[in-house]
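re: the backbone from monday

yeah here it is again, tokenized this time
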């Protein structure tokens, strides 16, 4: 499969990691996830920038999604250059060296009745 699908730049305008969870970790820990599909024959080198309402952006966070692979990144797990603060609204911009498809998912488990939301990220090119 040599054809690339998707876009090289994606935006997720809404992000929020709750400060606590109801249920066992890691499975039911409240989180934001960026699901990336790389259907190309080349590895995708990703850079993620995080934007906030009241402070400078942070990043880039760098990761690789192998050729013809998928990767589910929990924003909660990002550490370098700094962890993303909980209970703080944020947005993300994802740039890739090859075309990929990005989906955004949130698990909010602050109540016993969990809420799961998912939507496609916005392709920017």
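seq for it, each position gets an aa:
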């Amino acid at each position: 499969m040599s054809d690339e699908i998707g876009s090289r730049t994606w935006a997720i305008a809404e992000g929020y990691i709750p400060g606590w969870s109801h249920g066992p970790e890691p499975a039911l820990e409240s989180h934001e996830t960026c699901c990336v599909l790389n259907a190309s024959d080349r590895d995708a080198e990703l850079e993620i920038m995080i934007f906030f309402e009241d402070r400078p952006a942070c990043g880039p966070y760098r990761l690789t999604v192998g050729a013809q692979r998928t990767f589910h990144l929990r924003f909660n797990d990002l550490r370098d250059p700094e962890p993303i603060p909980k209970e703080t609204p944020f947005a993300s911009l994802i740039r890739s060296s090859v075309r990929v498809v990005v989906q955004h998912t949130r698990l909010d488990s602050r109540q016993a009745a969990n809420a799961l939301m998912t939507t496609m990220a916005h392709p920017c090119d």
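The chain is about 0% helix and 55% strand. The chain has one domain: 7-123.
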